[in-house]
Amino acid sequence: MAFTKNTPIIWQGAGPVQIGTFDLDRGRADQGYIVDVYRVGCGTSALTTSISIETRDVKETCSGHGCTLIQYTNARTLTVSLSLVQFSGRTLAAALFGAAVENEGGTVTDEILPELAPGDYFNLRHVKASDIVIADSTGSPIQYVEGTHYEVEDAGHGRIHLIGHPQSHVEPVMVDYAYGRSVNIKAFSQTNVERGIIFDGLNQSGQRARLIIPRVALSLNGDFSWISNEEATLTLSGNALYVQQLEGDTDYNGFARVSLFSED
User: 199 and which of 30, 122, 179, 211 could share a cystine (Cβ 3.0–4.6 Å)?
Assistant: First the structure.
């Protein structure tokens, strides 16, 4: 049966979510000016939209009861919330107002350590460390011996425990090492980049919905649990922003578009 505007819907939906960047210069109106689109993980626990309307009432004076004569709409707000238990570094970076940058790995020479006392820990600048060599700053540098002067507690995280210094060591102490590939996120290195959201939804009756919100100022909503007994949820939320260039578009009207359809 063809899907019409009168087709009944019971919505218990699922489906992939895509996030992109709203960009008037690189984007096209047909796609809501959304570029750099990628799919988030399949562990999306919630995608919600809510609408609030700000109104102003004008009261009548004829009845003596001050009844509402007319109600004006002052503002409309569409709020979007996306909750993820599976996500990429790009999405985490967006929550931290940063960018996910792939670090290909390399080598470090003479990384200077702070002054350390026996029993202290220190953490290398880079992760996935190997070929670690620690030495002091004497004319002929004294090389620290693993198991005697230090122990590598976690090479992956670059965490090292100082057991003790060689006798008469000279500061500063420096480290040479190699490091592996990782993704680096610099928090608050970017302003809030405006995102676009695309949801390709499917309910249990085989009915489908596509939701496109071209422009949303997403930011981290609530806490992100770095230590937890359960999987952490990353929640991004924000208000849909008006797109003047789509105001006259018959599909978007400046804010969002919903397409309802079925398999046939």
Answer: 211
DSSP secondary structure letter of residue 93: H
Q: How many helices (H) and strands (E) does the chain have?
A: 1, 17
Strand (E) or helix (H) holding 206: none
Burial class (CB in 10 A: 0-12, 13-18, 19+), 5: exposed
Q: Distance between CA atoms of 116 and 246, rounded to whole angstroms?
A: 60
- Check: CB of residue 113 under 8 Å from CB of residue 144: no
Which residue matches tokens 């997403």? 218
Give me the average pLDDT of each 10-residue run along the chain (264 residues).
86 93 95 95 91 93 93 92 94 92 96 97 98 96 97 98 96 98 94 91 92 94 92 94 92 91 83
- 150 closest CA partner among 178, 123, 179, 110: 123
Q: Which of 88, 84, 19 is nearest to 45 (CA)?
A: 84
CA-based angle 45:46:48, to the nearest 5?
A: 175
Max distance between CA atoms of the chain, in angstroms, equals 100
**Domain residue extents for the chain:** 17-100+187-261, 105-180
Q: How far apart are CA 87 and CA 156, in angstroms?
A: 22
